[in-house]
Design a protein that fits this description.
- α1 runs antiparallel to α2 and α3 runs antiparallel to α4.
- It is globular and about 40 Å long.
- It has one domain.
- The chain is built from four helices and four strands.
- The strands form two sheets. The protein has a two-stranded antiparallel ribbon with strand order 1-4. The chain has a two-stranded antiparallel ribbon with strand order 2-3.
- The chain is mainly α.
Length: about 100
Amino acid sequence: MKIKFSTLMLDIDGEPIKEPTGDPGKTRTVTLGELCERVLLNDMIEKDGAKKVQMFHLAMRIHGTSKEVEISVEECALLKKIVSSYNPLIVGQAWDLLDKATKH
């Protein structure tokens, strides 16, 4: 299945979610890919080294691309599981985007 990880995440009003950049007063929008990368690369629960390597490679495929990324059903299930650490606004959007890809 193909996922467009460059899709912007939206707030409850449908506006792009913004976060501080590091420069005072400046913000940037947040994408599905950035959120997925963060949880893939910051997962401290997974103990299996081979699984962590798979997570690293998936994050590298997602990183910075504006193109759709081909992922397996297993990778989609993994992403749904680990993005669940976010709040309901993010989880709901992420799951909807991932589920939409499985239906095409």
